[in-house]
Design goal:
The structure holds 2 protein chains of 2 kinds.
Chain A: H1 2-10, H2 21-24, H3 29-52, H4 59-62, H5 81-98, H6 100-105, H7 107-135
Chain B: H1 2-23, H2 27-47, H3 51-75, H4 90-111, H5 128-136, H6 140-163
Helix pairs in contact in B: 1-2, 2-3
Classes of the chains: A mainly alpha, B mainly alpha.
């Protein structure tokens, strides 16, 4: 156990017979730059107000913004179960999409066989989609 | 060198955010800290060259599942923090015992753990191309079963949500 941990620290990719991550890191530079820009932009934009504004708060200014309406009740209310249903359906179709990535990168190699596989995969979930629509799962009211 | 630095930064950050998740008083902050935790674990996967798992970790876990968690937190009535005040009861003791049992199990499982032996056949295993080829040829039946399982989950979610509508 200890031995493995030491080896892992020296080269985490040892078990995979691959070049260590530091050798392959340039493949991910684009992703790193994107993460850095995304994180930086979010931090700058959300903190810019603290630097730029003059801090003179009135009751109206610190009020929660609800599209210009006066806030009604507390924000810590129970939300409708419809949100749960939408989130659950989102996860399920998200997982479906995830399985399309490995298929898509190998599409040429797998050919018509892979196409039929993915077609039946999507078909079964399409049945589910029809069921959801028929049951009114996507109707808000 | 780079691996060591990345490992320590990500490991310390993931444990720190995991501790913050369970000690935070505001469940909303807990959920958002869990997103940070998932990102750190995704980074650890990346340093292990498991790039597909890293991407899934971020798209599915930090993306979709945390949206569900947020909605579940909003579904529960968290109006007053006083009602969340944990009392010392049997459930807490049981949780402690189960946690201890789990820790013991993990230690036993990891005692003789060595991933070195099976190294050779896992060549480039984390790459998305490799996963795609394996998934579509050798593991075609499990792959097709996934869609059936997703279908079951979809029907189950719909039944539960429609019952209370």
């Amino acid at each position: 156990m200890k031995n493995y941990f030491e080896q892992y620290l020296q080269n985490p990719c040892l078990n995979y017979n691959l070049a260590p991550f530091s050798k392959r890191m340039q493949e991910y530079y684009g992703a790193f730059i994107m993460i850095a820009i995304g994180l930086g932009l979010a931090l700058i934009l959300s903190n810019l107000q603290n630097i730029l504004i003059r801090k003179r708060f009135t009751e109206r200014k610190v009020m929660p913004y609800e599209s210009g309406m006066d806030p009604v009740g507390t924000a810590r209310d129970r939300f409708s179960i419809k949100f749960y249903l939408i989130a659950m359906l989102f996860i399920l179709f998200d997982i479906e999409i995830i399985f399309m990535y490995p298929w898509a990168v190998q599409y040429k190699q797998l050919g018509i066989f892979g196409f039929i596989e993915m077609f039946s995969f999507v078909l079964i979930l399409f049945v589910g989609y029809i069921y959801v629509v028929k049951k009114g799962g996507l109707d808000w009211n | 060198m780079v691996e060591t630095v990345l490992f320590w930064v990500l490991a310390v950050l993931s444990i720190a955010t995991a501790l913050a998740v369970i000690t935070n008083r505001n469940p909303m902050y807990s959920v958002l800290l869990l997103v940070v935790n998932f990102f750190c674990i995704g980074g650890l996967y990346l340093t292990l060259n498991a790039e597909f798992i890293a991407v899934i970790q971020i798209i599915v876990y930090a993306g979709a599942i945390m949206v569900l968690f947020l909605f579940v937190v909003m579904l529960l009535n968290l109006g007053s923090e006083k009602s969340l005040e944990p009392a010392f009861d049997a459930k807490k003791g049981l949780a402690f015992l189960l946690g201890l049992a789990f820790l013991a199990e993990m230690l036993v499982a990891m005692k003789d753990f060595s991933a070195i032996g099976s190294a050779k056949e896992t060549f480039e295993y984390g790459k998305v191309e490799k996963i795609g080829l394996q998934l579509m040829t050798q593991y075609v039946y499990p792959f097709e079963m996934i869609s059936v399982i997703l279908l079951v989950a979809l029907i189950g979610a719909l039944m539960i949500a429609k019952k209370y509508n």
